[in-house]
Design goal:
Radius of gyration: 22 Å
Shape: globular
Number of helices: 15
Distance between the termini: 48 Å
Number of strands: 2
Largest sheet: 2 strands, antiparallel
Structural class: mainly alpha
């Protein structure tokens, strides 16, 4: 298959494509041969601008403004206490202090004060368990399954970079005890994880470098396990794992490591979209290993919905001049993914859904592949121009997001059926059904 990466040991990854050069991956080579999915009656057409004014320049200059509307607060809606208080302050001409940037000097000083031996015992043990497991994988030179490589999307690029960064972190400690080296690496990761994650970073490279390279976080290590289990493949969740588990590592151990990474990230700071993404991965792993009808899967799914609503991913507002970016599209994609899973779970188990379309205002993500969102302004503008008024690509390609869009539109129809099925009224009126 054209553009396919050769099978290489995970411990010695050969980076044919990197975060800074995503175009090295031939995404069109992974087109599916399935027929195009015909989807009718989209809820509303997606209007986009043919400019890229909202992007941060590659030279590091500040962007003019958000090209989509971040919520006032993660927990506040338009009728909440915080929103009402802001309105009163504005009407009374009370000065409202501007919030300082999240990565100011105080936060940096606070994060640099982390000492591994001062952390709670359970936190230290979980962090060392994750690091020992991932370094055992690297040391054992685990080989990817032939023909099972997932070579597209930002997750693939990020995980390759994370493996390389972990190897670089361990090199200075070859002449000291492994325990001492792991503790130093854990301390460094804790410091990085304490830095607030910028969900609204418009520059794709800057967004990715928040958890790659020298900025490895516990969320970074959390991405490794679902990637190796092939769960990050949005087209085929149930393919065989990318590797043959060895060195005492099984799928259940991988799920434990993912769960520990989520807990450690929560210990260090506030939730964000990448952490929500990891929670969804854990739900899928619970579903695969234990089944959709189990309490563990339902609890994991409930936590996903809770965090999603807390982050207001269900209520993303777009400005008229919206220009897509990797971070903004990622936020809408993760919402659509969780929404689809909620409807599938309700259909399979017969339980009521945990969120309904009537409480959703987040638009459907655009049919643009990650490699284009990671490109420059010209690349993004070209991708926008190739979309039809409903946001579908006109090239006839089936990207992972193409499948997600189709599933989301089907989920909206499914939500209407579920609403009728769970209605308390034994005989719903004709007007209600229509």
């Amino acid at each position: 298959m054209a553009g396919q990466l050769p099978a290489t040991p995970v411990g010695s990854v050969s980076l044919h494509a990197t975060i800074d050069n995503p175009s090295a991956v031939d995404v069109h080579a992974v087109e599916t041969t399935a027929s195009a999915i015909a989807v009718s009656r989209p809820e509303s057409p997606v209007t986009v601008a043919n400019d890229a004014e909202g992007l941060t320049k590659d030279d590091g200059s500040e962007s003019v403004e958000f090209n989509y509307l971040p919520p006032r607060s993660s927990a506040s809606g338009f009728y909440s206490h915080n929103a009402a208080l802001e309105e009163i302050r504005t009407n009374l001409l009370f000065p409202v202090a501007e919030q300082s940037p999240q990565n100011d000097g105080n936060n940096s000083q606070e994060s640099s004060s982390v000492r591994f031996n001062q952390l709670p015992t359970v936190v230290r043990e979980k962090s060392l368990f994750v690091l020992k497991t991932v370094f055992n994988l690297i040391d054992s030179q685990v080989v990817e399954r032939a023909g099972q490589q997932c070579t597209y999307g930002w997750v693939h690029l990020a995980v390759q970079d994370i493996f390389q960064s972990l190897q670089n972190l361990m090199r200075p400690f070859k002449n000291v005890s492994k325990q001492q080296g792991l503790e130093h690496i854990a301390e460094r990761i804790f410091r990085a994880t304490q830095k607030p994650f910028q969900d609204h970073e418009l520059n794709a490279r800057k967004w990715l470098h928040q958890f790659c390279g020298a900025n490895l976080r516990w969320e970074s290590l959390g991405l490794i396990w679902p990637y190796l289990e092939r769960i990050t493949d949005p087209v085929d969740y149930f393919s065989k794992p990318l590797i043959k588990w060895t060195a005492g590592v099984t799928s259940d151990v991988a799920r434990t490591c993912l769960d520990y990474c989520i807990q450690l990230a929560k210990f260090c700071g506030e939730p964000h979209n990448l952490l929500l993404h990891l929670c969804w991965y854990r739900t899928i792993m619970d579903s695969v290993l234990e089944g959709d009808g189990t309490m563990s899967t339902f609890a994991s799914h409930g936590q996903c919905i809770t965090m999603m609503i807390f982050l207001r991913a269900h209520a993303v507002g777009l400005q008229p001049s919206y220009t897509p970016s990797l971070s903004s599209e990622f936020r809408m994609r993760i919402f659509a993914t969780i929404f689809v899973c909620d409807k599938l779970d309700a259909t399979f188990t017969g339980r009521p859904p945990l969120i309904g379309r009537r409480f959703v205002s987040t638009p459907i993500p655009l049919d643009i592949r990650d490699e284009e969102l990671m490109g420059d302004e010209k690349t993004i503008s070209k991708a926008i121009d190739s979309l039809d008024p409903q946001g579908w690509n006109t090239g006839g390609f089936i990207f992972p997001v193409t499948v997600l869009r189709a599933r989301y539109l089907i989920a909206l129809i499914r939500d209407e059926i579920i609403e009728v099925a769970h209605n308390n009224s034994t005989q719903p009126s004709r007007e209600y059904l229509l």
